Amino acid sequence: MNLSGEYRINAQRDVVWQALNDPAVLRQAIPGCETVEQESSTAFTARVKAKIGPVSAVFTGRVELKDLDPPGGCVLSAEGKGGAAGFASGDARITLLEDGQGTLLRYEAEGKVGGKLAQVGARLVEASATKIANTFFSRLDGLVAVPETLPPAAAERSLPAGRRMPEVFLERVFIALVVAAVGSLGIVAAFLQ
Amino acid sequence: MYAFRYHHAGSIDEAVRLHGSCEDPGYLAGGHTLLPTLKMRLAQPSDLIDLGTIDALKNTSTGTDTLIIGAGVRHNDVARMTHPIPALAGLAGQIGDFQVRNRGTLGGSIANADPAADYPAALVGLGATVITDRRQIAADDFFVDLFETALQEGELVTSVAFPAPRRAAYMKFPNPASRYAIVGVFVAWTASGMRVAVTGAGARVFRVAAMEEALERNFSPDVLADIQIPDDGLNSDIHATPDYRAHLVTVMARRAVALANA
């Protein structure tokens, strides 16, 4: 499965970073997200209840950051487990660009699926992942474009010592992407080809 | 399959009331999407409310220019019916295989809103109206996104009203195994103008304005020959690329117009 996309987030990079650094904002932006937890400085896990069509399942995803090149981008390696549905893993290259008053984010992801998911085909994987990713970015745009909806602490919040903003931004965004992709993989199992 | 509570609903009101009183409920129509999902443990509803025993969902009535089909009417029944919209019978007869047509229902298909389902093309192509337990929704507003409709939580489709067109036809390029539409196009010459609805190609059914305008001038396959829809955002999977689907839309639309004129 290959996924790629480009989104313009209607806020300056600083604002987007601040918002994405707040787990509360992230949980609001990821459809069905229950928790986002940091395992180490370069690893995160997220738990998401994905619901598309008749499928409703809880997925857990783990993301690791590699080939850091702040602030231009990085490669993110991810794996997700969806219980009975199977598992998915993949790598994605993220590129960040300044775009006037906004931020342009591009991603190219390549993934594979296994277990029950792989047996029954991939008719809806890409469409589902795209839908979830679109929902995430439009919610994110809504959250950062209207600062009043952010918790007051978000604007003041500082980054953990020793961590640079682009890293945090990329990690957070990619968690959402991975979760989107992994969550959507569960859907294929329901639709026999 | 996980355990769940099973309910027989005796009436539309009872079904909706039951749905409102359960923790994580689902309606069960024909079950040909829902049951495989449950068998693979990809959903775990607390309660299922079986609609199969509600006679009010199985009514069909034919007016001079409208056909109203109950949400619980099965595909095979629509395919065999003698009614004023032969294109609809033709579409229903192409859904899935015999077993699917013998169980699957109109309401179940449209409430599920699979991007490759056939019925959404007929609803949008004919400018139908979806009737629920609480309101009426124009087909153009009903299909919102991938597996997403305008239905509210617990809202139940009770029937669909199809206005009879002057001419109409549906052509699809099916997946040879599942019979889902890789691309399906419903073309109709209706009282309110030309309508071209495409299923299978995008996240949801959509209309093609450029083709509708061309058909307004001349209801002939040839006027569509040079109209290619952009492939941006079209579905991509192991069966077809966006580019190929965009090409198929024109091919299927031309064939549908030819069939409507036959």
Describe this structure in words.
The complex is a heterodimer of chains A (193) and B (262). In chain A, a hairpin with a 2-residue loop joins strand 2 and strand 3. Chain A has a 7-stranded antiparallel beta sheet. Chain A has 193 residues and is of the alpha+beta class. Chain A has a single domain, classed as 2-Layer Sandwich (Alpha-D-Glucose-1,6-Bisphosphate, Chain A, domain 4). With 262 residues, chain B is α+β, with helices and mostly antiparallel strands. Chain B contains 10 helices and 14 strands. Classes of the chains: A alpha+beta (193), B alpha+beta (262). The interface between A and B is medium-sized, with 27 and 29 residues.
Can you give keywords for this protein?
heterodimer; A: alpha+beta; Alpha-D-Glucose-1,6-Bisphosphate, Chain A, domain 4; seven-stranded antiparallel beta sheet; 7 strands; globular; disordered C terminus; B: 262 residues; alpha+beta; Uridine Diphospho-n-acetylenolpyruvylglucosamine Reductase, domain 2
Q: What is the topological layout?
A:
The complex is a heterodimer of chains A (193) and B (262).
Chain A: E1 2-9, H1 13-20, H2 23-29, E2 33-40, E3 43-52, E4 55-69, E5 73-81, E6 87-99, E7 102-114, H3 116-120, H4 125-145, H5 152-156, H6 165-188
Antiparallel strand pairs in A: 1-7, 2-3, 3-4, 4-5, 5-6, 6-7
Chain B: E1 5-8, H1 12-21, E2 25-28, H2 34-39, E3 47-50, E4 60-62, E5 66-70, H3 75-80, H4 86-92, H5 98-103, H6 106-112, H7 119-126, E6 129-132, E7 136-138, H8 139-142, E8 143-145, E9 148-149, E10 157-163, E11 167-174, E12 181-190, E13 193-199, E14 206-207, H9 209-217, H10 242-261
Parallel strand pairs in B: 1-3, 2-3
Antiparallel strand pairs in B: 4-5, 5-10, 6-7, 6-10, 8-9, 11-12, 12-13, 13-14
What is the strand content of chain A? 35-45%
Structural class of chain A comes to: alpha+beta
> What would you call the shape of chain B?
globular
- Name the quaternary structure: heterodimer
Measured between the Cα atoms of the first and last residue of chain B, the distance is: 48 Å
Overall shape of chain A: it is globular
Order of helices and strands of chain B: EHEHEEEHHHHHEEHEEEEEEEHH
CATH class of chain A: Alpha Beta
Strand residue content of chain B = 25-35%
**Order of secondary-structure elements of chain A:** EHHEEEEEEHHHH
Topology-level CATH name of the domain at 167-261 in chain B: Enolase-like, domain 1
Q: What's the total count of β strands of chain A?
A: 7
Number of helical elements of chain A: 6
**The CATH architecture of the domain at 167-261 in chain B:** 2-Layer Sandwich
